[in-house]
Amino acid sequence: MREGARSSAPSPYASLTAVEAHSVTPTLPAPAARPLAAVRRASGRWGLIVALLALPIYYGIRDLTHGYQAGVVAGHAVVHHDLSRLGFNFAQGLSNGAIWALIAIGYTLVYGIIELINFAHGDVFMIGSMTSVGLWATLGLGLSTGPAGLIGGLVLTLIVSMLVCGSLNVLIERVAYRPLRAAPKLAPLITAVGFSFILQNVGLLWNGGSPFGVNDLIHQGQTVFHIFGVPIVRGYLLALAVMIPLVFALGGFISRTRAGKAMRATAQDPEAARLMGINVNQTISLTFLLGGMLAGAAGLIYALYETNVWYFQGFKAGLIAFTAAVMGGIGNVSGAVLGGLIIGVIQALSDARMGPQWTEAVVFGYLIIIMILRPRGLLGEETREAG
Amino acid sequence: MSASGPTEGFGELRAQLREWRAGIARRLPPWSGRALAGALVVIGILLPFVFSNNSGFMNATIIALAFAVMSLGLNIVVGFAGLLDLGYVAFYALGAYSLGWFGSDFFFKARVHVGVHGVAATEQGIHLNFILILIAAAIVCGIAGIIIGLPTLRLRGDYIAIVTLAFGEIIGVIAVNGQSVQIGGGMTLTAGNLGISAVDAPYFPGIGQFNLLNLRPWYWLIFAIVLIVVGVNVRLRDSRLGRAWVALREDEVAAVSMGIPSVRTKLSAYAIGAMFGGVSGAFLGTYYTTVNAGQFQFGFSIFILAMVIIGGLGSIWGALLGGMLLGYINNWLIPDVLNDLPQKLGLNFSMTEIEYGIFGFLLVLVMLLRPQGLIPERRRKLELTSEIAAEDAQLVESTAP
């Protein structure tokens, strides 16, 4: 499969339908058709990497030269000149990024297969959070629950949340996107936005219009161990412990199973896939199911980690995760994970250094920089849209 | 193909209807179209005398007309030029802030008065005549439109949507946080969620005073703006530039090879579309008597886009109708008429709470049942309904080298 994609890469039109959409390993960029374009491409990737590194390097140097206030002892500010604050930002950012990565994979899978920005995806994630929180109450999980009950309950919640979100995503595809397969591309985008609003209002009626605090079931702020003086808390470990196995399972599914092969084939050329006997509609439904399940897992982690749920969380998370998917190269699963982690770090840096109220502007500023420098992202193939 | 499926059964009926319509059109004198337009304008001018001067319906009509101006502006970008803009709220914000900056005592260190009347002529701050504010809003938004357009020139389709969305959100964040951005002399960039209040009311001699108890002058002002904007839109659509937009939308490669300057044409679409948004934003700013950062949410961009789509992409009359329709639904039907309905049914919420859900539902419904909109543009209607066109497009795609 991967060989096939590579052999078709030299043609400038090979990526019409997001070639290599589901490869879990980064691939070589297409050979340059013109020398000038090659230069632009190279500068684009390096320009993007420089832009991404600018923020941590700037703050790292600033911490070393100017120092930062690490605490107050006996009325005097303690100023440190080391990188542990940056390390702290990174730890926080990577664990946040794990949530964004899980959501971003949903965007990237769907975009890879039907070239649609599934605007409702962020809200599916929000429904996942709400389902998890609702299920805790039903199961009676609380701060006094013992470790065995807690782990069992959370695993059950994870499974239910993944199933709910997966089926919800499949349902949305069936109702809102499939009838519009032959319509202009704008049409499903609009129904996606429509469903996003509908789901937001479901969340609004479910848990009210303001952030709804939930029990800190796992004591997420509790430090487990230190790495180079950076405290690693339970929340970080949880995020990574859920994200990493799921991503590997997804990668294995896509690259090893027959259904995964069908997904890759459909992403490459739906018409040819249909002629080869692949049930395209079923494959697309499967893609939505997988994306929705990952969003459901992300929803549970978010609720445990942030200890609040809000009907609007999905919208913000959706935009951030979409930025992550675009940054990594849309249609590329490993790109989405990489992008999610990078966006998480950027967000943590911006939250800590510039103030959380500016974070959204910083993230979207990066999105625009990516679009100017390298529209196909860090690992993505050149597509017709981003050419 | 499945999109046109349900309509096929009505083929004969539709053909019959078309014939009748053509028959009626043949019998009417050639000046009938103009006469109808003239009659509509006269009815429009006289309309406020039918309703009470400060009724909820008048209020909704004024806002609906202002929304229609934005819808017409966005229609240029999305409908004519085919550039999906999801950040149109940025121009609403910049237009409203143009009013806040140039028509209130917000910049209290400055003392500029140009062509203003009454209290505004003596207060501190910058006070320009309302016409000048509209021009300033159009210029500010035109420039912003070009800035937003520049990074999208190399991109197509969804990617344009994302960049414009990002710009819209950035403008929104700046509007909220502008409170903490000092620009010297203790003045800030915006007033954030507190809002710039006490903005100047427009003043035009002869149509009465503009205040909240006397809505007729507001109505006539926005009605005049709508007439001008529709006129400009019709002239633009049939102009060289308008045809260039449509050509770029239909096939960029072909259009460019025919000598259409792609960059200039696209940027002019962004700029002109943005100008209308700015004009309407400035009007809404003074009508709401406050410029508040909370008004500029992403949902509003989608709201305006929904107007254009429900009306019919690329169709001027569709954009006008869609803008008015959603304006009425948003400001009259949901809050005034249907608001208590869920409570009467024993449900514990009000209709205004779920208005975005209702819009979402409408969007899905219109897209599934009538993707071409209420008053479709002729070219797009053909594209969407004829099987042949769809098959042609597939043929072209599948045989691409």
How would you describe the overall organization of this protein?
The complex is a heterodimer of chains A (387) and B (401). Chain A has helices at 2-8, 35-66, 84-114, 121-139, 147-177, 186-207, 234-256, 258-268, 270-275, 280-306, 313-328, 333-353, 359-373; strands spanning 68-73, 76-80, 212-213, 223-227, 230-233, 308-309. Chain A is mainly alpha-helical. The radius of gyration of chain A is 21 Å and the shape is globular. Chain A has a two-stranded antiparallel ribbon. A two-stranded antiparallel sheet of chain A has the order 3-6. Chain A has a two-stranded antiparallel ribbon with strand order 4-5. The model of chain A is unreliable at 1-33 and 383-387 (pLDDT under 50). Chain A has a single domain, classed as ABC transporter involved in vitamin B12 uptake, BtuC (Orthogonal Bundle). By secondary structure, chain B is mainly alpha-helical. Chain B has a domain at 53-297. In chain B, 64% of the residues lie in helices and 3% in strands. The longest helix of chain B is centred in the last third of the chain and has 27 residues, at 262-288. Chain B is globular. Mean pLDDT of chain B is 84; it is low at 1-7 and 387-392. The chains are: A mainly alpha (387), B mainly alpha (401). Chains A and B meet through α6, α11 and α13 of A and α7, α12, α15 and α17 of B.
Pick out its properties:
heterodimer; A: 387 residues; mainly alpha; ABC transporter involved in vitamin B12 uptake, BtuC; two-stranded antiparallel sheet; two-stranded antiparallel ribbon; 13 helices; 67% helix; globular; disordered C terminus; B: 401 residues; 3-stranded mixed β-sheet; 5 strands; disordered N terminus
